């Protein structure tokens, strides 16, 4: 019996390591999917270093930033930055000459990121309280806007995506990383309620984006780089 309990505990610990998002439940809402986190209820539990390290194994931030073309001096934003896991890596990469806008709509996430900036002395990260469809970011100012594991949680994705176009500099891009239900299923993870990649691409097209490139190295997520189609860019940023 004792042997059985020890095996059970080992199995649970092993699953948590192999499947870092296993404690996340997905509930369909407004055509997209909402993700809830089962944690100890505190921002600390949700945004712990251990959790960040586990996510880093399936979403290596250095390789992701290389693929996004993030360089020192750039002005970039992450919409739905949560506890700042990826945004702080962006801040390191763009350096003192660059800037990162870390947006979220969750007051706990915003508070956590502000505290993190103070404690980790991050001076080039600006925490922004977004609206549901208005990211409240500077207009025509951003080289890259990243949506990392966030789009499936957004209740009104098309209006938000349309508003992102106006924040991009000419030549700026949107990088979207999100759960790929086929990859989830292949890894025996619950993909119920996740939108298909085709559904997500349709939303992006409806909002005025077109695909520039696709990166396939993430084991559980799709990773697309997109730019505004010319007519959508013109509508959002009328330039003479
Ligand atoms: C799963 S977390 C991802 C956090 C972070 N991007 C990461 O990968 O570690 C998704 C975040 O998106 C935020 N979110 C949901 N809808 C949003 C919206 N309309 N605008 C900004 N943030 C949003 C949630 O509050 C949550 O913090």
Protein architecture, described:
- The protein is α/β, with parallel strands linked by helices and 240 residues long.
- The chain has one domain: Vaccinia Virus protein VP39 (Rossmann fold, 3-Layer(aba) Sandwich).
- It is 39% helix and 26% strand.
- A seven-stranded mixed β-sheet has the order 5-4-3-6-7-9-8, with helices on both faces. It has a two-stranded antiparallel ribbon with strand order 1-2.
- Strand 3 (75-79), helix 5 (87-94) and strand 4 (99-104) form a beta-alpha-beta unit.
- It is globular, with a radius of gyration of 18 Å.
- Bound molecules: S-adenosylmethionine.
- The site of S-adenosylmethionine has 20 residues, from strand 4.
What would a concise description of this structure say?
By secondary structure, the protein is of the alpha/beta class. It has helices spanning 2-18, 43-46, 49-58, 61-68, 87-94, 107-119, 157-165, 181-186, 197-207, 230-236, and strands at residues 24-29, 32-37, 75-79, 99-104, 125-129, 142-148, 168-179, 209-215, 221-228.
For this entry, give a set of tags.
single chain; Rossmann fold; two-stranded antiparallel ribbon; 10 helices; 26% strand; binds S-adenosylmethionine
């Amino acid at each position: 019996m004792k042997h059985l309990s020890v095996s059970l505990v080992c199995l649970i610990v092993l699953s948590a390591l192999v499947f870092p998002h296993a404690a996340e439940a997905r509930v369909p809402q407004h055509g997209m999917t909402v993700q809830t986190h089962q944690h100890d209820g505190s921002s600390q539990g949700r945004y712990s270093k251990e959790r960040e390290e586990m996510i880093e194994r399936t979403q290596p931030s250095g390789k992701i930033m290389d693929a996004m073309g993030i360089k020192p001096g750039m002005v970039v934003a992450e919409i739905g930055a949560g506890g700042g896991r990826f945004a702080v890596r962006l801040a390191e990469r763009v350096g003192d000459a660059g800037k990162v806008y870390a947006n979220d709509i969750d007051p706990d996430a915003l508070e956590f990121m502000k505290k993190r900036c103070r404690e980790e002395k991050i001076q080039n990260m600006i925490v922004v309280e977004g609206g549901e469809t208005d990211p409240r970011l500077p207009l025509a100012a951003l080289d890259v806007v990243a949506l990392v594991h966030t789009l499936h949680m957004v209740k009104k994705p098309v209006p938000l995506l349309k508003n992102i176009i106006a924040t991009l500099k000419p030549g700026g891009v949107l990088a979207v990383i999100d759960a790929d239900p086929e990859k989830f299923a292949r890894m025996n993870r619950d993909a119920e309620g996740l939108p298909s990649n085709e559904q997500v691409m349709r939303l992006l097209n409806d909002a005025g984006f077109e695909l520039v490139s696709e990166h396939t190295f993430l084991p559980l997520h799709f990773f697309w780089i997109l730019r505004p189609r010319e007519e959508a860019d013109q509508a959002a940023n009328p330039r003479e």
